[in-house]
Amino acid sequence: MINARWVQQGATGSVAHLLIDSRKLLFPPTTLFFALVTASRDGHQFIGKLYQQGVRHFVVSEKQDFTSFPEADFLLVADTLKALQLLASRHRSNFSIPVIGITGSNGKTTVKEWLHQLLEPDRQVIRSPRSYNSQIGVPLSVWLMEPQHELAVFEAGISRCGEMDALEAIIRPTIGIFTNLGSAHNEGFASMEEKLQEKWKLFAHADIVIYKRDAGLVDEMIARRGAISPALFGWSFDGDGDMVVQVSAKQETHTLCQVLTAGDRFELKIPFTDEASIENALTCCATLVYLGMPADTIQSRIGQLHRMAMRLELKEGINQCSVINDSYSADLSSLAIALDFLSQQQQHIHKTVILSDIPEAGLSPAELYERIGALLKHHGVGRLLAIGPVISEYQQVIEKYGLPVVSFLSTENFLQHFDELSFQDETILVKGARRFGFEAISAQLEMQVHQTVMEINLNAMLNNLRQYQQLLQGGTRLMAMVKAFSYGSGSFEIANLLQFHGVDYLAVAYTDEGVALRKAGIHLPILVMNADPAGFDALVSNNLEPVIYSLRLYRRFEAFIRQEGIPLYPVHLEMETGMNRLGFSRQDIPELLQLLPGAVFKVQSVFSHLAASEDPAQDGFTREQAGRFQEYCDQIAGILPYPFLRHIENTAAIFRHPQWQFDMVRLGIGLYGMDAAASGKLRLEEVSTLKTTIAQIKSLEPGESVGYGRRGKITEPTVTATVRIGYADGYPRILGNGRGKMLVANHLAPVIGSICMDMTMIDITGIPGVKEGDEVVVFGRELSVNAVAEWAGTIPYEMLTGISQRVKRIYYQD
Ligand SMILES: *Cc1c(COP(=O)(O)O)cnc(C)c1O
Question: What pLDDT shows up at residue 328?
Fold first, then answer.
């Protein structure tokens, strides 16, 4: 089926699970591993480990030394990703059920999740887990189709021309849905038309495409195509189309519409008021109309839609706990994803899962809870708190996997016993079907936060890491700079992610930062740039590796190590090449070379720091720095009997000077989404979003003033909003009096008057629909921290690291 050559046949038994990530192995004997090769990782490296863990079926694109794996099957193909896709498309061809394929720029995942909610009461629906919509996500989703399913809903996302054909061949939608055309991923396409054409390829074999008539590019393209297939089902607000919608009233919590279709007219109450949700709900409504659902059923089901919290959030909890809140859905595949996220967390030894009944289509409860028991055990869960009549009944099935289960018949029942459950110093995953109302549980577990938060997008960080990994020459290692609370974005939460995704080294500025990481279970090697003699004890007992940058520090640390009777301790040598901050200078080197051979130190690396790697005008100087560095390294290599790592590059240099990557690079600001080399060529995503909320709105008249010193002068009728952030939170006071702006309902609102310690007033005159309690973005994806830093006359590094620790960090994965 996948055009493979069977190069070794050693296994027996059949295959049920596909695996592309060795860390996610669950059922070794029935797993088929695809050794994918990407710019940052080669799956073939993990074959040995997987074999040891019991995997026997492999699809590879490189010949292996098969003799070390006598009991395994090896299928050799030219391209393992293509093979995965081919297998999924063959699997797809076994089914003749309706398959809905969704694409468009925004709203794909929401529309998919909502359609699932809307259709699930009558039929067994299979859908893509979360936003599995990529070249890898789509085949893995389609592989989940099983005989009992009656309808499938899959989403397809592309970022570049030429990608959709492959996805179409796997999904083969019979019903297409096009959500809308927006600016996402514009960089991958020559024009909006080209992007639209590419996306539309998903519908090559569909019977029908459901879309919103937009009086723009979509309608133009359709008009040009004429009456060729597929057929169309268009909806619009303007009186034209197969379904026409008139918004009759917008209220505080919902929107009322009149819906007119070929055979019917009915009123629809959409439980949202924002444009995007209304549009997504109407796309779903059009689909239901097309599928022939009676109007009264459509009315009642759409009325019950709820907003998707499509991300896993990690928050600080009571009693030193960390809480992962994932109570928007409960099915096996999303449970597996949430458990993966849970197992990445190393900060607490104990892991607890609070889980409701799972209304899983098509599996007997005995089999379902059997699988859940295996999953929980595999992910090292220490205890299960089970809520619901069914899961309680099958408690023993899960207990067989050696994990203590306490069960409760209902959420109320659980809450009554909350205090006896003594949550302490553990990571808790809260996962329940919507009707169990687990919000009440997470509210009890989470710490109250003041309403200014910094949200850290872990997917964005991972994307940035991958972008830089792609720039590395083969074999170059990567050290991630997590100093200063990971450039303001967190500590162990970030380190956990980096550790999980194969970073080689971490670096912090001071010993206590390294100690905090060790306490949170980070076991990667950690370099400490500025180790103070007062902290040598903590340094050594936490296995942290200091930078030795002067002869004085060399002697002091050596004395300490000898006094402790340690035979050999790992250190890093920093060489001065032009930054003039820390490091051995040329005149120190003869003495250093004399000391080293007899030292109690194992030199792990020799490094230096570039002063102006981002600046083309300084490339001559950078070259001189690199030259000196090479010279010093050669001298040290001449006297040390073992090899060491050499590194000099920071973020900007990785991109601009690939020739000096040596053995390792030190990635800092790029990881957090800043293109330090201003290359414009990397697809970096902003990681941190700083948000606050409106405490009060005021209407002011000419002659009044705002804030201290009456510096905000009112000359025309003005509406102001007081927001909950001030200079004590790290919002620079220099941004007062119009220099800074915040984003309110997609409009820029300038600061009015001087910034106070804990509050700031902004001018929201003319911005429609703003209420007290609304969210305000201080910086983030839509308002770059670069821009805000520029207004404040500083650099993003200072802006990010200056955000006070009193601002709570929330970590999430889409
Ligand atoms: C901070 C730092 C880096 C990272 O610099 P970026 O510009 O953020 O990439 C690298 N090396 C050293 C020694 C540093 O102090």
Answer: 66
3-state secondary structure of 116: helix
DSSP per residue, 295-316: HHHHHHHHHT------SEEEEE
The best mutation among 582, 650, 798 to test binding of ligand 1, ranked by most ligand atoms within 8 Å of the C-beta, falls on 650
Q: Looking at the 3D structure of the chain, how many domains does it have?
A: 5
Q: Domain residues for 10?
A: 5-80
Q: Is residue 680 part of a domain?
A: no
The single-letter code of the amino acid at 552 is: R
595-611 residue pLDDT tens: 998 889 999 999 999 99
Cβ neighbours of residue 669 closer than 8 Å, sequence gap 6 or more: 487, 651, 676, 796, 797
To the query of whether residue 549 is one of the catalytic residues in this protein, the response is: no
Query: Cα of 402 to ligand 1 centre, how many Å?
Result: 46
In this structure, are 442 and 458 located in the same domain? Answer: no
- Name the pTM for this structure: 0.70
DSSP 258: E
Whether residues 148 and 295 fall in one domain: yes
- Give the ligand 1 atom nearest the CA of 667: 9
| Same domain? 149 vs 180 | yes
- 431 CB-contact burial (10 Å; exposed 0-12 / middle 13-18 / buried 19+): buried
3-state secondary structure of 14: coil
Q: What is the pLDDT of residues 194-219, one digit of tens each?
A: 999 999 999 999 999 999 997 788 88
pLDDT of 227 above 60: no
Same domain? 358 vs 431: yes
SS3 category, 181: coil
Instruction: Determine, yes or no, domain membership for 198.
Output: yes
> Can you tell me the distance from the alpha carbon of 620 to that of 373, in angstroms, rounded to the nearest whole number?
62
Tell me the CATH number at 358: 3.90.190.20
Ligand 1 atom closest to the Cα of residue 650 is 9
State whether 573 and 424 are in the same domain. no
Nearest CA to ligand 1 atom 1: 668
CA neighbor of 611 nearest in space, from 623, 602, 594, 599:
623
Question: Could you please report the per-residue DSSP string of 120-162?
Answer: TTTS-EEE-STT--STTHHHHHHTT--TT-SEEEEE---SSTT
Find the range with the poorest average confidence among 70-84, 96-110, 325-339, 492-506.
Answer: 325-339
Residues 319 and 428 in one domain: yes
Asked if 459 and 565 sit in the same domain, the reply is yes
750 sits in which H/E element: strand 747-750
Structural contact between residues 461 and 487, judged by C-beta atoms closer than 8 angstroms: no
- Asked if the structure places residue 677 within a domain, the reply is no
Question: Domain check: are 328 and 292 in the same one?
Answer: no
Rounded to the nearest angstrom, the distance between the alpha carbon of 790 and the centre of ligand 1 is 21
Is 400 a residue of the active site? no
- Token readout for 283 is 């796309």
